Amino acid sequence: MKIQEVTNGHTTKISLTAISAMVAETATFPIDLIKTRLQLHGESSAVRLVSEILRNDGVFGLYKGLSPAIIRHLFYTPIRIVNYEFLRNLLVRDDDCSLSLSSKATIGGLSGVIAQVVASPADLVKVRMQADSRMASQGLQPRYCGPFDAFNKIIRTEGFRGLWKGVLPNVQRAFLVNMGELACYDHAKRFVINNNIANDNIYAHTLSSIMSGLAATTLSCPADVIKTRMMNQAADKQGNYKYRNSYDCLVKTVRVEGLKALWKGFFPTWARLGPWQFVFWVSYEKFRQIAGLSSF
């Protein structure tokens, strides 16, 4: 009976996490699109970029690549969130005790790595479809007409392993993001509650999500830039790639564009992570309360 209760609890958490992630992703996806385009093509103004997208593609142009992003989060977010909570509770059985920030960071990073390996193909398709939106606005033929077409073409031209192109920088980014996001949210929330700054409510969730978003962005932005460029590149007619590996991409980016290029898209990234986490954590905590589960 106890095993069945644990299984049902995990199933409920997975479902609630997936729903909350879809809500957050849909709400903040246009910011992610802008961030990706800034990193890939070097546009200097987010305002100019938004104006261009609206002028050429309309409002729906801001949601180019949403479907693979949703597919990604059906795997990525439940795995990392539920796995983090499981490992945290496994290591701390006494309610009066708490893990150190470094321990939470390690658990968060490892949970993110596992989740990202599983979700990397959907992330690859999302990045390429976002890049395609710029090609379409310039009158060029997009590479893909939808997520399933993208999966099919990538497998046919680059092989099944091609779906995991850029997985190394992807995993590196996932480790850093979740190390900052999960550990900081968990730690900040308990700090806010234990010091009577706020109760376990939307105010505590908002403060915690802002702090965790800033920490995650600062740590992960360089890896995010490298990951985006590695995943978007395709072989030329001779079968050669612009970047041999993530280190080569790092060196060439810094050499050509300077060290600051590694934080290109920092503010759009933080502007997305903050609202994303706010929408996600507020929704998730509320859904848990409705389902009769304890707070995260």
TrEMBL record:
GO terms for cellular component: mitochondrial inner membrane. It comes from the Eukaryota. Solcar repeats lie at residues 12-90, 99-191, 200-290. It is found in: Mitochondrion inner membrane. It is a multi-pass membrane protein. Its main location: mitochondrion. It holds the Pfam family Mito_carr. Transmembrane segments: none annotated. PROSITE patterns: SOLCAR (PS50920). One of its GO terms (molecular function) is transmembrane transporter activity. Keywords: Membrane, Mitochondrion, Mitochondrion inner membrane, Repeat, Transmembrane, Transmembrane helix, Transport. Belongs to the mitochondrial carrier (TC 2.A.29) family. This is Mitochondrial uncoupling protein 3.
